[in-house]
Amino acid sequence: MFRTPRFALSLLLTLGVFGYADAARAGWITVTNETKQPIVIQETSGPLNRPVRGKCVKLQPGETYREYSLLGGTRNVVIYDAAVPNIPLVMDTMKWEKDGAAFAIKTDGKKTTLGPAEKK
């Protein structure tokens, strides 16, 4: 049936990689910048009167940031305009389940919002 052991091994590896594509997707947290301006996202933690600032991520228009999280959870974030980084556009909380989530940053010209991304 199989001509060589290499053929059998490559067939098993191919089936293994493509057979578990759903498991590979689980756990990714994505944030997409759907505005027309560059933004900066910064995670915060700690009490409200003395927040501790975390890692900053700059996203260009249309760019997506991905991070792997094995467990579900919540994350407090502050979103700034990259041109004016001292005034926050949005202070919000991202919540997700164990299987991952997708978030989008949108604006209507007056107000910027962070919410779940539309499924494609």
Tell me about this structure:
This protein is α+β, with helices and mostly antiparallel strands and 120 residues long. The chain has one domain (22-116): Immunoglobulins (Immunoglobulin-like). 17% of the residues lie in helices and 47% in strands. It is built from 2 helices and 8 strands, in the order ααββββββββ. The protein has helices at 5-19, 21-25, and strands at residues 28-33, 39-45, 52-59, 64-68, 73-81, 88-96, 101-107, 112-116. The strands form 2 sheets. It has a 4-stranded mixed β-sheet, with no helix packed on it. It has a 4-stranded antiparallel β-sheet with strand order 3-2-5-6, with no helix packed on it. The protein is globular and about 65 Å long. Residues 17-23 have low confidence and may be disordered.
Tags for this model:
120 residues, Immunoglobulin-like, four-stranded mixed β-sheet, 2 helices
Task: Please summarize what this structure is.
The chain is an alpha+beta fold and 120 residues long. Helices cover 17% and strands 47% of the residues. The chain has one domain: Sandwich (Immunoglobulin-like), CATH 2.60.40.10.
CATH topology: Immunoglobulin-like
User: How far is it from the N-terminal to the C-terminal residue, by CA?
Assistant: 42 Å
- Residues in helix, %: 10-25%
The structural class is alpha+beta
Q: Mean pLDDT, rounded to whole units?
A: 81
At the fourth CATH level, what is the homologous superfamily?
Immunoglobulins
| CA-based gyration radius | 20 Å
CATH architecture: Sandwich
| Uncertain runs | 17-23
Q: How many separate domains?
A: 1
Return the string of H and E elements: HHEEEEEEEE
The DSSP helix count reads 2
% residues in beta strands:
over 45%
Instruction: Tell me the name of the CATH class.
Output: Mainly Beta
What is the count of β-strands?
Answer: 8
Shape verdict: globular
